[in-house]
């Protein structure tokens, strides 16, 4: 009898192992889609299709934030569907769709992180992908001005090039080019908040003989994170007689607006048309008087 009991226990163990192996082979995530990058303010659709839809115990979506403090970088439950129950969605900016698809609404920098789908019956399978929310913030601002000669070997005036961006995410790189030549001797200052938003300031001082009138000065924003391929630029054509800024584009439109008001559809000014009508009338009156 002891031998029979041992055999029975062995068979039972083998049966459980076979069931587990069968479940692990049968259950799989057949389609998984999480975008690697999303521009701030847009939505993102996350898909997780699995092979055994009728017999899964649950499907869950998790999020591990990228910019949270180290003690807060725990997984956050975004979506949970238990078999026979209505899906639970505890996070406000998440909407559920069919087939356990979720949509992240109006994304911001703090939504960056790792998104994971978990499907379970006897076995359990998981897939995950990092999603980065990117933004150029307030845009690339470029300012160029002449300054007094600094402590160098010449007595020439100098040109100060200032490039900055506010509220950008993730941390961007700023580069300054003059006629497509990149200058590396720049001063960089970075400010960061807790949500992965950055203010970056870049200064470059050049001798005035390096920058001629008509030179193209460009500031370029890119991201060290290779998943974010977007670039933003701001350009100025240098004129030594004025301070230049991309945030100020002064145009004297007074004359053009006045001309537009005075001209009719045929391109003749109202004053000219009045004269054309008045001259024949004057001649007619003079003829009657004579």
Helix and strand arrangement:
Layout: H1 2-26, E1 29-33, E2 37-39, E3 44-50, E4 58-65, E5 76-82, E6 94-96, E7 102-104, E8 113-120, E9 124-134, E10 141-147, E11 158-168, E12 173-178, E13 181-183, E14 187-192, E15 198-207, E16 216-222, E17 232-237, E18 244-245, H2 254-262, H3 270-289
Parallel strand pairs: 2-9
Antiparallel strand pairs: 1-3, 3-7, 4-5, 4-8, 6-7, 8-9, 10-11, 10-18, 11-15, 12-13, 12-16, 14-15, 16-17
Structure description:
- The chain has 290 residues and is an alpha+beta fold.
- It has 3 domains: 25-134, Immunoglobulin-like (Sandwich); 141-245, Immunoglobulins (Immunoglobulin-like), CATH 2.60.40.10; 254-283, no CATH class.
- It is 19% helix and 39% strand.
- The protein has 3 helices and 18 strands.
- The protein has helices at residues 2-26, 254-262, 270-289; strands at residues 29-33, 37-39, 44-50, 58-65, 76-82, 94-96, 102-104, 113-120, 124-134, 141-147, 158-168, 173-178, 181-183, 187-192, 198-207, 216-222, 232-237, 244-245.
- The chain has a 5-stranded mixed β-sheet with strand order 2-9-8-4-5, with no helix packed on it. Strands 14-15-11-10-18 form a 5-stranded antiparallel β-sheet, with no helix packed on it. Strands 1-3-7-6 form a 4-stranded antiparallel β-sheet, with no helix packed on it.
- Strand 8 and strand 9 (124-134) form a beta hairpin.
- The longest helix has 25 residues, at 2-26.
- The protein is rod-shaped and about 95 Å long.
């Amino acid at each position: 009898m002891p031998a029979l009991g041992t055999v029975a226990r062995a068979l039972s163990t083998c049966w459980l192992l076979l069931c587990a192996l069968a479940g692990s082979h049968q259950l799989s995530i057949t389609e998984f889609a999480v975008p690697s990058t999303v521009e701030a303010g847009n939505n993102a659709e996350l898909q997780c299709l699995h092979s055994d839809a009728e017999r899964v115990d649950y499907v869950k979506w998790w999020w591990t934030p990228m910019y949270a403090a180290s003690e807060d970088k725990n997984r956050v439950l975004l979506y949970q569907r238990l078999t026979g129950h209505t899906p639970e969605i505890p996070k406000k900016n998440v909407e559920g769709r069919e087939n356990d698809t979720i949509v992240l609404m109006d994304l911001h920098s703090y939504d960056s992180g790792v998104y994971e789908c978990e499907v379970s019956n006897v076995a359990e399978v998981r897939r995950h992908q990092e999603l980065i929310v990117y933004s150029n913030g307030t845009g690339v601002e470029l300012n160029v001005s002449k300054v007094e000669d600094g402590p160098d070997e010449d007595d020439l005036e100098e040109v100060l090039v200032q490039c900055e961006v506010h509220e950008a995410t993730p941390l961007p790189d700023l580069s300054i080019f003059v006629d497509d030549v990149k200058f590396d001797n720049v001063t960089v200052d970075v400010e960061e908040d807790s949500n992965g938003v950055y203010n970056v300031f870049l200064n470059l001082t050049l001798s005035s003989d390096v920058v001629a009138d008509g030179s193209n000065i460009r500031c370029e924003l890119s991201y060290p994170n290779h998943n974010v391929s977007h670039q933003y630029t701001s350009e100025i054509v240098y004129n030594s007689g004025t301070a230049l800024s991309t945030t100020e584009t002064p145009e004297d439109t007074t004359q053009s607006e006045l001309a537009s008001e005075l001209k009719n559809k045929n391109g003749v000014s109202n004053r000219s048309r009045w004269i054309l009508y008045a001259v024949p009338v004057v001649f007619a009156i003079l003829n009657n008087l004579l």
